[in-house]
Amino acid sequence: MCSVEKSAKTVELAVQDALNELNCTHDEAEIEILDVGSKGFIGLGAKPARVKVLVKYDPEKEAISFIKDIGVSMGIIIDIKTNLMEKATSTGLLTKTNTQGLLPRKQLDIILSGENMGILIGKRGQTLDALQFLVSLAINKGVAPFINVSIDSENYRQRRRDILENLALNLAKKVKATKRPVTLEPMNTFERRVIHSALQDDKQISTYSEGSDPFRNIIISLRKNI
């Protein structure tokens, strides 16, 4: 985050000078008055006002700038929509001001659109996942609290979820029919979570993961008591 200290005859002039240098508005800045200054007596002993102006951190603006720079380097124009919100997350702790044990947690959802979005999505969403990881690093650098980032394009995440859920159900049927476990190809964390979730209520089926990323995969098998 950028900040400057400025001196002038009045606080207002010092603030405006700082805003001009930082190229931001009052709403985009945090202003600290270091010294209100004084006019002195008939011009003698006058003391200038001093202020410190800090540009407020805007994770949405940071994310948009980061993604646009990547788009330029890839030769594509990306339309970006962002939504920053707070979600209550259970902490397991209760306080006087938080009787439900919930902690506000920021979530930044980003939707990308434009031509050639397939390039940004990549095979099985690998490029999209990599972009999501990089944006998360970029906006969380030296900032607290941590902001979760989710990036999607052309509704890929939901379409992929639907495909994986259908795959999980069909493979579960196969396991029940053959009574033999099935090992899926390596998947990322999101995909493995979808498979586990799709079959978690099936009392005949067990799912577990083996291996290390990026080669970690899921095994679907019958429960031992079947």
**CATH architectural designation of the largest domain:** 2-Layer Sandwich
How many helices? The count is 6
Per DSSP E runs of 2 or more residues, the count of β-strands stands at: 9
CA-based shape? elongated
Beta-strand share of residues: 25-35%
Structural class: alpha+beta
Q: What is the H level of CATH, i.e. the homologous superfamily of the largest domain?
A: K homology (KH) domain
Q: For the record, what CATH class of the largest domain applies?
A: Alpha Beta
Largest sheet: spatial strand order:
1-3-2
Mean pLDDT figure: 86
List the helices and strands and how they pair.
Elements: E1 3-8, H1 11-22, E2 29-35, E3 49-55, H2 59-74, E4 79-90, E5 102-113, H3 117-121, H4 126-139, E6 147-153, H5 156-178, E7 182-183, H6 189-199, E8 205-210, E9 217-222
Parallel strand pairs: 5-6
Antiparallel strand pairs: 1-3, 2-3, 4-5, 7-9, 8-9
